[in-house]
Task: structure prediction
Amino acid sequence: MNILIFLGPPGSGKGTQAKKLAEELKLPHIALGDILREEVRAESEIGQRAKELMNAGKLVPDELTIELTRLRITKADCGSGFILDGFPRSWKQAEALEQMLKENKWEVSRVIYFRIPEEEVVERLADRRSCKDCGAVYHLKFNPPRLEGKCDLCGGELYQRADDNEKTIRHRFEVYEQQTRPLIEHYVKANKLVELDASKPIDAVYKDLLKVTATAVVP
Ligand code: AP5
Result:
């Protein structure tokens, strides 16, 4: 089983790198933010509970994210592993994940920590654009689409996420510092954590990512 956890502040590039690595390793990329946005779009009960919290940059209640993760990682396509992007983000989530893995006799292969300062995150997220249809992610300066406002992959319309404004970005960073950052120490102690300089350009980060995961994943 190849189980990778991507941990880091909002806008550190977790999603961008997880998509690339998931394709390379043929593992499902499980992004809790994407799953929640799908629930919001579908106006499900979970979506209705999550919407305001997400728009305000707060964490969605643990019991919801834990249940969504449990449902997702027990699907058939996770049989040889998965990449978890944006989960766990709190102690309660980390404990629940450990329990879920134990029940299945699975173990985390590596936790990748994306290190980046707050100011760079603000710049990145303010100019992020995402595809309404396939979820592909762009940056107006660092990774622009070929045609303005259109997705290179599916031609879908690009939009700016409601939580990608400066005030909410700074709040999300604060939430990360308080609730998620303490998990780093936990995974260091468990000898699972490797750190990446996420400030480098996309291709350079990916090169480093391949290096640090090479010894952890089973081909
Ligand atoms: P989520 O969607 O997971 O947001 P996030 O963690 O804030 O992370 P982002 O998606 O903003 O950033 P990223 O690190 O993936 O960066 P990206 O690759 O896009 O969660 C949203 C909300 O859902 C949360 O606030 C919360 O409410 C809720 N939620 C989710 N999970 C939860 C959980 N477990 N518990 C409770 N609530 C939860 O890159 C960002 C931009 O930078 C892009 O434009 C990209 O093109 C560009 N870029 C990427 N890498 C580089 C690079 N190396 N150089 C230059 N530009 C780059």
